[in-house]
Amino acid sequence: MTDLPTLPLADAINAIIAWMQFGLDGIFGPIKVVIEGADQILRDCLYGMPSYLMIAVAAAIMAYRRRYAAAVGVAVALAFIANLGLWRAATDTLSLVTIASLLSILLGIPAAVLIAENRAAKAIILPLLDYMQSTPAFVYLIPAVLFFGIGTVPGVIATAAFALPPVTRALAVGLEQVPSAMIEAGTAFGATRLQLIYKVKVPLARAYLYAGISQCIMMSLSMVVICALIGARGLGVEVVTALTQMNLAKGIESGIAVVMLALVLDTLCRPRERREV
Q1: 231: which DSSP letter?
Q2: Nearest Cα to 216, choosing from 98, 46, 84?
Q3: Is 45 exposed, middle or buried (0-12, 13-18, 19+ CB in 10 A)?
Q4: Tens of pLDDT along 150-168?
Q5: Of 4, 206, 236, 238, which has the fewest Cβ atoms less than 10 A away?
Q6: Residue 254 lies in a domain
Q7: 217 in Cβ contact with 266 (< 8 Å)
Q8: Number of domains in the chain
């Protein structure tokens, strides 16, 4: 049997990467500066706030949302992280996750609208999301490091890309589930197509959006340990250090801190509960 010729896929990828490195350098540079600046500002704010004050603020937010048991749980979880001596690492992780999640949400909402409103866009974006969700997490590190070097910025970019599909898919499903009667009512009142999207469909799909944001945050935190391999700060550094030193106790402590932070962020991002009449 004659051997089939090998497709020049690697050569094509290398050519595209070379073109992007030289042709799009003017785009990658400003993106890196903006993310670095946002991360520095957010970390300075978090560093300047004492741990006990941040714990009190988080608990107060939950109490304001009438979730008093959750307020106690949030306070206990954050106090546990501080007691382990991992508060500084947790604030670094919080900064990374916050910026990455915001990027995912800002990109995911327009993408979800395109999926729900345009069949051609849906045929292109959905397979792309399938590819992104089936790609191993480590693969995201390669282009991030290639275009942005080592440090927090490639960690943010890789995390944002990894967490993008859930929020996009969730909101797209929510938009497609909006009752036609509500759309007809908005049209009857003279709403334009853009007004129908952002004043009728998106508000009615808020439950799906909240679910997507929750999954986005969880997936962002799951990338924390991996991003530590490319120089990102945070709890991932503690986990990787424990792994290299074969320090099981330290690794478990760091892992518990990641889980605690995930629970706190998930709880804080849930919608406010309504008072029963």
Answers
A1: T
A2: 98
A3: exposed
A4: 888 999 999 999 999 999 9
A5: 4
A6: yes
A7: yes
A8: 1
